[in-house]
Structures are given as structure tokens and as C-alpha cells.
Amino acid sequence: MSDEVNITMPRIAIVEDEDDLRLSMMGYLASSGYAVWGADSAEGFYKQLLAAPVEVVILDVGLPGESGLQVARHLRKFGGIEIIILSGRGSVDDRVEGLNQGASRYLVKPVDMRELVANIQSATRVRQQLAVTASSANAASWVLFRADWMLQTPDGAQITLTTREFTFMDCLLKSERQAASRGELALALTGGNLDGFDFHRIDMVVTRLRQKIAAVTRIKVPIKTEQGIGFVFTAECRIQ
Fold first, then answer.
1. Is the pLDDT of residue 101 over 80?
2. Lesser CB count within 10 Å: N end or C end of the chain?
3. Which of 12, 37, 237 is closest to 117 using CA atoms?
4. Would the pTM of this model clear 0.90, i.e. be above it?
5. In the chain, what are the helix, strand and coil shares in percent, each to the nearest 5?
6. If residue 164 lies in a helix (H) or strand (E), which one and from where to where?
7. Measuring CA to CA, which residue among 136, 24, 32, 11 is closest to residue 82?
8. CA distances from 121 to 55, 117, 168 (A)
9. Homologous superfamily, domain 12-138
10. Is the distance from CB of 107 to CB of 95 less than 8 angstroms?
11. Secondary structure class of 112 (helix, strand, coil)
């Protein structure tokens, strides 16, 4: 598929108080090419996480002190870490609770190491695909920065706007891809005082804006004239 994501191998932490199992998993994952470290408690995990960030945590539920479910709930608040619970507790209620606390996968011990790796890959693929999709969506959008009076093109070029250009764009975007009439635009540009206003000034603003945009990007200028009505911004544009 053309939109297939090349998966980056995540860094992994294993939080498991059974030493043999933790060391066995660490050895298998390391031999599979993963950067991995382990902890036997929530406290030990938190301390090491500060020095060695990870993208995936394999988490036992029955830990000494703070439970694995508490760890999952804590990690969920911050996001950015995929949680795979690996527990001897396999009832439906246990699995549902684990997923509700923030885990994306719930595996029951004993688990085949190949199944564990497959779940790591699947969880990572989904997260990275979502990240790529979000990045593409943002990159495909125009952005109007209200605080800075700046228009950003989809390819990242930034255009500083004059007072009239910004007011024109702000009015145009409030129409939500419907045509803003010349009357609406004139009211916005004059602050409501139309005495002596020359409507040709609107065309001058549009011309300057089109020229400014065309000077910094090859993307088609999305300001369209609607004959007899006004103007419409035809592309997706976010306001910040």
C-alpha cells in the first residue's frame, strides 16, 4: 500500500517482579533487535524512565507496592507510551479493567514470545500510522495565526499580513468556506463605518494577498471570486 508506514522499532521497558520471566523477555527482545530494560516494581520503573524514555511498556498487574493498573492509569495521563499488560489474571473482568485503565493490549501468561513481539509491532504500527496521519493533516492545512497576524501555507511558508489583509482573511474564514459578501467584507474592513468607502479597496486587498501567497509557494491561491457575491477561501484553514 502506498500509505504503509515504515515502523521504527520502539524502546521497551518490562515491569515484572518475577525475575526469571523479566530476564527471559528482555533477552528475547534484545536478540530481536529491541532496546529494552527492566524493573521489578513501579518505583524502580519510574526512576529508570526518567533516564531512559521508552515508547512501549510491558506491564505486570500484580506488582509489589503500586499495582500495574495504577501504573497504567498514571501513564495514560501523559500519553505517548503504548501499554501492553502481561498478567496471570485472565478473566474477562480483569482484561476489561486493564484496557479501561489505559492498556492497548492485554495478554495472559504464559505467552509465546512471538505473540508478544507481534503485539508490540501491531501496537507500534497503529500509533505511528496515527502520528503520520495527523502530521499529514496538519501539513495539508493553511493556518491563520491571530496573535501574530500571519498566514501559513501548507508547505510551511509564513506570510505576515497587514491590518486589512488580516481582517479580510479573518472575515473570509468565519464564513466557513462559504462566500463572504462584499458588504460583509466592507463592514469588517471599516469597523462598520461605510461612509465614503470605495469597494474597489476590497479588490486591492485581494490582489495583494494573492501576490503575496504566490510569491512564497507554488500551491494554488485558494481565494476564489464568486461573481456578484464576494469571495471564498476554498481550502481547509485552521485558526490559531
1. yes
2. N
3. 12
4. no
5. 45, 20, 35
6. helix 163-174
7. 11
8. 12, 6, 48
9. Response regulator (3.40.50.2300)
10. no
11. coil
